[in-house]
Write a structure and sequence with these properties.
This protein is of the alpha+beta class and about 290 residues long. The protein folds into two domains: about 1-120, Alpha-Beta Barrel (N-terminal domain of MutM-like DNA repair proteins); about 125-260, Helicase, Ruva Protein, domain 3, CATH 1.10.8. The chain has six helices and twelve strands. It has helices at about 1-10, 80, 135-140, 150, 165-170, 185-205, and strands at about 20-25, 45-50, 50-55, 65-70, 75-80, 90-95, 100-105, 110-115, 125, 160, 250, 255-260. The strands form four sheets. The protein has a four-stranded antiparallel β-sheet with strand order 1-6-7-5. Strands 2-3-4-8 form a four-stranded antiparallel β-sheet, covered by helices on one side. Strand 3 and strand 4 form a beta hairpin. Helix 1 packs parallel to helix 6, helix 3 (about 135-140) crosses helix 6 and helix 5 crosses helix 6. It is elongated and about 60 Å long. It binds a DNA duplex (12 and 12 nucleotides) through loops.
Length: about 290
DNA sequence: ACCCTCCTGTCA
DNA sequence: TGACAGGAGGGT
């Protein structure tokens, strides 16, 4: 999400006010896009909805939005400053005095039209929205047996948390990523909430995380990578002050999780209502050897 | 909580 | 050659 927000902010400096003159699609997977409906439309605004980029193309009595989901490797580049040639070029939007290029190596990206804001309204609550409070988080977590880290990736609960940040957030909050999401105490939930907001605000401030080739529409990379505490740091020392742990990697729901087995496995300070026989997953939670 | 799929590229 | 990759949706 910080990466998407970064792209959106860069697009905002270029797109509003321009008109779409022509749209070319070079990837058959994107052929469903009705390019004729785009022609002649003026870009009124650029915004983000969850991890989607939304261009408002509405005219009086003719509402229309263009939604772009970059997924893993999608990129939107302002042609004048950041053209990358023809390789992986999937679509070209020719605008008045300029062009917007959509690149996507793995072709997971999605470009679609929306006729109403409901078509791109995220199902969950935005991390940086005012309604995302500790109480709201507690309500969302309640009753879930899913391990915390995979739970954080559910876009129908919290919107915007991706795989990098899910590990980072668990570490910052000192929580075991294998803990059942519904097992967190009020104190832990407050910590999780605070650290989540802090990390996302900071990551946006840094222009997102560039692992491989993420960039904004001017070709500028993000520099939150240097702030990462656990992601891709398997085998390295834990960066929490005074913690002697070594970062470990495990796979949850098919995705890498990085965490510190020392400072993220401490037992809950106190239990909520003592009736639930749900011991902390200190050891055997994953049911299978997690370490390779 | 596990599996798989969509794709292509990179690295050990 | 195989493991893995920022996301998401599907299936048991």
């Amino acid at each position: 999400m910080p990466e998407v927000e970064t792209v959106v902010r860069s697009l905002r400096k270029r797109l509003p006010g321009r008109r779409i003159k022509n749209v070319e699609i070079f990837d058959p997977k994107l052929a469903a896009l009705d390019t004729e409906r785009l022609r002649g439309r003026r870009i009124r605004a650029v915004s983000r909805s969850g991890k989607e980029i939304v261009l408002d193309l509405s005219a009086p009595r003719r509402p229309l939005w263009l939604c772009v989901h970059l997924r893993m490797t999608g990129r939107l580049l302002w042609a004048a400053t950041a053209a990358l040639g023809e390789r992986h070029l999937r679509a070209r939007f020719t605008l008045t005095r300029g062009a917007l290029l959509f690149y996507d190596a793995r072709r997971f990206g999605v470009v679609r039209l929306a006729e109403s804001p409901a078509d791109f309204a995220p199902p969950g609550v935005e991390i940086l929205a005012a309604e995302f409070t500790p109480a709201k988080l507690a309500k969302l977590l309640a009753g879930s047996a899913m391990p915390l880290k995979p739970w954080l990736l559910r876009q129908d609960r919290i919107v915007g948390c991706g795989n990098i940040y899910a590990s980072e957030v668990c570490h910052a909050a000192g929580l075991d990523p294998r803990r059942p999401a519904g097992s967190l105490t009020p104190v832990e939930i407050r910590r999780l909430h605070r650290e989540t907001r802090r990390i996302f605000a900071k990551a946006i401030e840094c222009g997102g995380t560039t692992i491989d080739n993420f960039m904004d529409c001017e070709g500028q990379c993000g520099n939150y990578r240097s702030h990462l505490k656990v992601y891709e740091r398997e085998g390295e020392r834990c960066l929490r002050r005074g913690c002697p742990g070594e970062i470990a990697r495990l796979v949850q729901a098919g995705r890498s999780t990085y965490f510190c087995p020392v400072c993220q496995t401490a037992a809950p300070i106190r239990r909520v209502s003592g009736s639930k026989p749900r011991p902390g997953p200190t050891k055997s939670r994953t049911g299978r050897r997690p370490e390779r």
